[in-house]
Specification:
With 207 residues, the chain is of the alpha/beta class. The protein is built from seven helices and seven strands; from the N terminus they run αβαββααβαβαβαβ. It binds flavin-adenine dinucleotide (FAD).
């Protein structure tokens, strides 16, 4: 019997501590984490695993620079801390990536202000990546001759983390980890309704 059918049969006959609905990155990680800690877990997705939002990510871990624009400093701090941990835990999957951005008169910020933001991102990120740089047009011309610097007033270079693997494969690695820890996982299984078993119906709820 194929693995999927075996797991569907288990879902029909066994009872589980947790049913995880959706095998995107959050469901897959939750299933792997719970199963790894000894919970009995069933994981379902109505399509392929990682077929929905988790296949459309730009793969940045976590692209927190953009949140500085709204001064969401606690969020940026959390994202950077998480990025640094993940870069250490998964060195083969998550690497540092550099961004080289040019700015001109139509840009929302002058280069010095963007560089200040990049420096703040680096500091909040506890220096977990390469030091950012403020770039003069002459430096950009020298380092990246393909860039047309006629209108350019300067630029910045800063770094973040990126998931270098295929995102669906990354998600599936957690699905596989969940299965290896004893979870039952099946795709093309949709949750269409849910209810409380009569013995556990909470007081005051209606069904
Ligand atoms: C263009 C774009 C770029 C992004 N870039 C980044 C980035 O660079 N860095 C970053 O950190 N984040 C990024 N994100 C956000 C990130 O991709 C999402 O936060 C993440 O993928 C959400 O994962 P998820 O598991 O919560 O949801 P999903 O991947 O959407 O998974 C939910 C799953 O649940 C299943 N499901 C739903 N209902 C049911 C049901 N009733 N029964 C069974 N299955 C069901 C769906 O089929 C789906 O597979 C980006 C998002 C987009 C759209």
């Amino acid at each position: 019997m194929a693995l999927r059918e075996t797991h569907i049969a288990r879902m029909r006959t066994e009872s589980f501590d947790t049913l995880v609905i959706g095998g995107g990155i959050n469901g897959a990680v939750a299933a792997a984490s719970l199963a790894g800690r000894g919970a009995t877990v069933a994981l379902i997705d109505r399509g392929d695993f990682a077929h929905f939002t988790s296949q459309a990510s730009s793969n940045l871990v976590w692209g927190g620079f953009k949140y500085l624009e709204n001064y969401e400093l606690p969020l940026v701090w959390k994202l950077c801390r998480s990025r640094n941990r993940l870069m250490k835990a998964y060195p083969d999957n998550i690497k540092e990536i550099g961004f080289y951005a040019t700015l001109d008169k139509s840009s929302p910020y002058p280069p010095w202000f963007a560089a200040l933001g990049a420096a703040a991102y680096w500091i909040i990120g506890q220096f977990g990546t390469q030091r950012p740089r403020l770039l003069k047009p002459r430096t950009i011309e020298r380092e990246e001759p393909a860039v047309n610097t006629t209108e350019v007033s300067g630029g910045i270079e800063y770094s973040d983390g990126i998931l270098i693997d295929n995102d669906a494969r990354f998600v599936f690695s957690f699905v596989r980890e969940a299965i290896e820890s004893g979870a039952a996982a099946a795709n093309y299984v949709e949750l269409v309704s849910a209810g409380w078993p009569s013995s556990t119906t909470p007081a005051g709820s209606s069904m």
